[in-house]
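sanity check both lines:
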Amino acid sequence: MDFEKLFLMALVIFWVIWVGGGSLSESKASGFSELGHSFLKGRVDFETIPDNEVDVVYFKGKKYWPLGIVPAVMTVPVVLVGEGLDLDLHQGYVQFVLVMGLAWLSWYSGRLFGLGAKDATWMMLAFMTASVMLQVILLRRLSMKKLI
């Protein structure tokens, strides 16, 4: 096994631990997964709202999400599995699954475009570590109150 392959394996392992540590340790940020629960019940408002969620709009006694719904829609399959297994999957678990899926998709895209396994892995690491989305997800545990 050559040095580049070992180095890539170490980087990928470090990246998975970094993402897992940032995502799985977060249990308070659950707005998107709570909205996913509401979607499964045919509602577009929050059925229950997380205590720390400040970004809601009140209208006629209901609480709505003023942000985009795409992340909440993406959580629906994971929330559905969690409900089926009678597990309370907080947003950290959901985002870990989504980020790992995005990593695989970026690696697979490289392979579809004719890159070798090593080059596709480099591309995946470059995309996933240079993307602003990943840092926002992992730094979500910072309270908005601390930022203001």
